[in-house]
Amino acid sequence: MLKRLTACIREYRRDTILTPLTVSMEVLLEVMIPRVMARLIDSGVEAGNLNQILKLGSLLVAMALLSLTFGALSGRFAARASAGFAKNLRHDMYHRVQDFSFSNLDKFSTAGIVTRLTTDVSNLQNAFQMIIRIAVRCPLMLVFAFAMTVRINPRIALIFLCVVPILVVGLFVIIRYAHPIFERVFHTYDTLNNVVQENLLGIRVVKSYVREDYETKKFHTISQSIYDDFTRAEKALAFNMPLMQFCVYACMLLISWIGAKLVVGSQMTTGDLTSLFNYTMQILMSLMMVSMVLVMITLARASAERITELLAEESDLKNGSNPIAEMADGSVCFEHVSFSYANDLEKLCLRDVDLSIQSGETVGILGGTGTSKSTLVQLIPRLYDATEGVVKVGGRDVRTYDLEFLRNQVAMVLQKNTLFSGTIKENLRWGCETASDEELERVCRLAQADSFIQEFPDKYDTHIEQGGSNVSGGQKQRLCIARALLKKPKILILDDSTSAVDTKTDALIRRAFREEIPETTKFIIAQRISSIQDADHIIIMDGGGIAGFGTHEELLANNAIYREVYESQTKGGNCDEAAE
């Protein structure tokens, strides 16, 4: 875990190294100041020597200014190092997520990833800053201050040796109790973020069903759970301060009592006693800061484990040793393909699919909900890998292609159409960054989107809100189809992507496909038979397998499932019959 996290320091290694160096210089000066002050009291103030007072006083001021300078530098270096470390952590996690396959993403919820990128990184940033600054300062201060105390009076130094075990045992008990609670809290944070995200994304549904009270109650329940856990952990951590104060005041009382006797007996000077008090405060303040660092590390440890878990996740979709970046055509072949999301042959979603589609053909896919229609087409661009069998594109196994090249040759419009905040032009150019305005208008005409775009005041410069919330479902679908066409793909997959458009617009889109991209292989998943009946082949999916394959006429004559759906849609059959 530490090796993976420290790798994120990178270009901020210099600041990370300079921080403890400047802290060390600051500590050395702070430890020397009480000794100079003791000499000032003994040989200057008590002896009435003005020259010594001026000389040692000037030295004290110079040492204090130097200590202040090194302290400011250490703070600056620590801030840059910790902020840079956090930046690199976010960068590495975000880029790792971009490389994830769908199966990897299934392991981490969206809310969980967001929490890791925000709250967990902030916790680790704070802990990192304390480790390279406070965690260096405190041990050095403890060692040097204790050494100076031993030099002044070994008997008094023994007091600290009696106090340290009490503090160590107390901190160990507190941390051991608090750490599991913090681990649980951060998992609850994931749930909280998920609830907030669902509520905001589905706010129209919430309001239309008047479920604000239910959502508020759900949020309150999870928020209360976080409050209860944090309260329990903070109660444990709260014992740290009384424990520290007890040790501080006990040491001060013992040193005052023993030191006063030694001064009266002329066994110790007033300056030595004064410096002992300073060293006592330095030692005990260092112990207190060590305890704070340990508390912060306890809090950050849970975050570090969650971040490392994400960074350690390897994508299960990788290029081969010599990936190919050339595709002969858009032909697709499934050779006895089976697939399981759990990679378990006992839980197959697709079973022994055997198909051969020629380049340029249009293939319709029809089937009920849960018959794995989307799963079938997602194997083509390697969003998932087949559990058994081989998927071939252009005559080659998809696993032999360079992954980026393969996906650039396959344009896919998913069931859940997504538009990003920005202009219509910016959204369309996801298909091709260098596309001209004329190309944008051409693909929009093919997708029947140009007509409604021209009605907007800003036309193609119209701003799209996050998720495309300011356009209708049909408009969103047509923009996504246009974006896919801009890739000029060898294979085009429409996963129920015209469900929100009327039958006339659907027909116009299909006609444009036939006339404008005849060499592109087209897979169209649809619920309406009218959307696929003119396809070269129609696949009937049922129970994860192929229940029929042929043209509209062949299936109408030979396939009972297709015939029932056709009759229910064209001869006035009711919804119950269609469902059956």
Quick take:
This protein has 21 helices and 12 strands.
Mean pLDDT, as a whole number?
83
Secondary-structure content class: alpha/beta
Q: Quick one: biggest sheet?
A: 6 strands, mixed
- State the share of residues found in helices, binned by percent: 55-70%
The unreliable regions are 573-580
Number of strands: 12
Strand order, main sheet: write it out. 6-9-10-3-11-12
Question: Oligomeric state of the chains?
Answer: single chain
How many helices? The count is 21
What proportion of the residues form beta strands (DSSP E)?
A: 5-15%
The end-to-end distance, rounded to whole angstroms, is: 54 Å
Inertia-based shape:
elongated
Q: Over all CA atoms, what is the radius of gyration?
A: 35 Å
Explain what you see.
Helix content is 63%, strand content 10%. The strands form three sheets. It has a six-stranded mixed β-sheet. The protein has a four-stranded antiparallel β-sheet with strand order 2-1-4-5, with no helix packed on it. The chain is of the alpha/beta class and 580 residues long. α19 crosses α20. It is built from 21 helices and twelve strands. The two termini are 54 Å apart.
Write the topology of this structure.
Layout: H1 2-6, H2 13-45, H3 50-99, H4 102-107, H5 110-132, H6 134-152, H7 154-201, H8 203-208, H9 212-238, H10 240-264, H11 270-312, E1 332-339, E2 350-357, E3 362-367, H12 373-378, E4 388-393, E5 396-397, H13 403-409, E6 410-413, E7 422-423, H14 424-428, H15 437-446, H16 450-453, E8 463-464, H17 473-485, E9 491-495, H18 503-516, E10 521-525, E11 537-542, E12 545-550, H19 552-558, H20 560-570, H21 575-579
Parallel strand pairs: 3-10, 3-11, 6-9, 9-10
Antiparallel strand pairs: 1-2, 1-4, 4-5, 7-8, 11-12
